[in-house]
Amino acid sequence: MSTAKETGDKREKYIVTNHGILFHSELNTTLLNSDKSVYEVIRIIDGIALFLEDHYSRLVSSVQMSGFHFEMDFAEFRHKIMELAILNQLENGNVKFVLAESGKENHWSFSFISHSYPGADDYEKGVNTELLFAERENPNAKVVQNTVRKKANQLIADQNLYEVLLVNRDGLITEGSRSNVFFVKGNRFFTAPAHQVLVGVTRQKVLECLTELAFPIIEEAVFASEINKYDAVFLTGTSPKVLPVNCIGVFPFQIGNLYVEKLMFKYNSMIETYVSSHRI
């Protein structure tokens, strides 16, 4: 696997919180990374927060499912992200919003986080993955789940993987540890149904692209024991966009699949259209 391009800036940055503007070192990371927090990661491209309306909608859904109290409308949410970008003089990167509860108090923050975008080699040759037998609690809510995250991170580090795919108690591959996953057979695209996964914004946009391309979509999770029946696999997510997988463990998959290539072109065009239409 080629090394993904590290573009996260390591310098100390400003963060925007409900307690004012702080330095990153002043952030209470223990609280905001606790299991009593929800989060959202938004990609900034040329100063534009990509698919921000969808990210905000998913955040509101996560907040409601988690029973948190949150009073920030979309206009303020967008303004805080733009304020963060201006303060840090950054037009590209990933912004993380975290909302945590401590007693009856809410704490929230917007901050740029280190990110790893796949390089051109990764899109051309695909990335390697492995299976992890684990599943999220309440997968529809984007909450911090440290147990699954630690297991995934350990396996990724031990085997030099790009990602691990989660397998539930029924032997079904539901999603990646930080991505959604699609399987391809012929011109048909398979992915786990919404109730089994964290419904990523990129996943939703990919489904829109597939519909426009008139490719059949089957919302069914794939059995881990049957992955050899599929032609191609790819991941979707804020950082990877649409990223081909070259293997799951010892099982190889097609790279340069015609239908996946058409999807990648369609999705990248969707991003370009969104960014262009949201420039002031």
Task: Based on the model shown, name its key terms.
about 280 residues; alpha+beta; D-amino Acid Aminotransferase, Chain A, domain 1; D-amino Acid Aminotransferase, Chain A, domain 2; 2 domains; ten-stranded mixed beta sheet; six-stranded antiparallel beta sheet
Describe this entry's structure for a reader.
The structure is a single chain. The protein has 280 residues and is an alpha+beta fold. It folds into two domains: 7-115, D-amino Acid Aminotransferase, Chain A, domain 1; 120-276, D-amino Acid Aminotransferase, subunit A, domain 2 (D-amino Acid Aminotransferase, Chain A, domain 2, Alpha-Beta Barrel), CATH 3.20.10.10. It has seven helices and 18 strands. The chain has helices spanning 29-32, 52-66, 74-88, 120-125, 146-159, 201-213, 258-277, and strands at residues 5-6, 14-17, 20-23, 37-45, 48-49, 93-102, 105-113, 116-117, 127-133, 163-167, 172-176, 180-185, 188-190, 217-218, 222-223, 232-237, 241-248, 251-252. The strands form three sheets. Strands 9, 10, 11, 12, 13, 14, 15, 16, 17 and 18 form a ten-stranded mixed beta sheet that branches. α6 (201-213) links the parallel β13 and β14. The longest helix is centred in the last third of the chain and has 20 residues, at 258-277. 35% of the residues are buried.
